[in-house]
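Hello, quick one for you while I still have it in my head. My current little project is about how a certain protein chain folds up. You're getting the sequence in one-letter code plus the fold written as tokens. Would you mind checking whether the tokens look sensible for this chain? Here's the protein in full, and shout if anything looks odd to you:
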Amino acid sequence: MPTNSSLPLTAAQVTALQDRLLSGPGWPHTEPASTAVDATELGRWLAANHRNNSCLWAEEDLARRTTVPAAEIAANKRAIDGYNQLRNDATERIDELLLLALKLVDVASARSDAPAAQVPPGARLNSETAGSMVDRLSILALKVRAMQFQADRLDVDEQHRQASRGKLLRLQQQRADLAGCFDALLADAAAGRAYFKVYRQFKMYNDPRLNPQLVRELRAS
């Protein structure tokens, strides 16, 4: 992804992409008009993370319904598991690509379960990865959009809209704060002052070999 600096990615690029995708008609179920950002591997994984967070958000709303058959809620819960796994996979891939661009991970091991960090002497380890920050920025973009909708509703009283506007301002501040932290981490990583790692989540609940309930079902069958 091209930038105006030596960094492989900036928070402004991340948030601009997320906002552009959210504003696209029919997204996330239809593809938006392609841009130069989308043509890069990193851009595609940023979009994949945001797409799966958006689908996950919609399914979470549907799963809270109280007047539909239980089978519909079960379908929502299964969809949530799937989107959550895909969102996590995209987050890990973003970390891999950023670390490769920063030369902070061994190329041969980057896609393995145990990526080998290449750490500059004296660099501090950041507990949160850049990919997880991108994931949180995606969720904040969704929260900002949802709260903006509440602030603009005409079928509620002014007290509801005013309360929503206050929450919207706090969400926007949280997003700006996180964006600043993202830029600071990548700047420190590029300068050899900090690093992060690819942390595999090893989500076991989706794996029929590791989820004890699924193992039990398989044995019973």
About this structure: The radius of gyration is 20 Å.
